[in-house]
Amino acid sequence: MSKSVAAAAALLLVGLGACQSETKSGPAATAPAQPESAPLAVPAPPADRTAEYLTDPRVGDVLVVRFVAEGSAAEQFYFYQVFRLGGDTVYTHPARQPVASPAADASRPDVFAPEAIRAFTRRELQEFRQESPADPQHSRLVQVRRETSD
């Protein structure tokens, strides 16, 4: 008997739900059914090609290094522009000063210091992608910017 009581209760609930939806009034009752919160079409972010670019560095690449200056909580970014490749060594010109965003303009001729040279081995660049626990500035290479047509 308890099975029949449960079945009757279920039918009663279904019937009540149908009655309530029929008795709704106002604009919502006459509006066509809307799909439940459809996801917004947001373009996917560009693929991170940093690892790929580091295996094949090119003259003109800009290495983006994130760091937090001692005594500050704000992250900053420092650029290094590749100007020469020699065997396993990547030669760069460092930026004259840090910037607030990794997307900051690096195309101006006064951004980099051509009189200064900082050389990295390809292995150092790969290792630089991981923050060293001993580094008080929490520096790490976060991106390689490359002008590409692909």
Automatic annotation (TrEMBL):
Tagged with keyword Signal: yes
Region described as Disordered: spans on this chain: 23-48, 126-150
Domain of life: Bacteria
Keywords assigned by UniProt, alphabetized: Signal
Signal peptide: 1-20
Name of this chain's protein: Uncharacterized protein
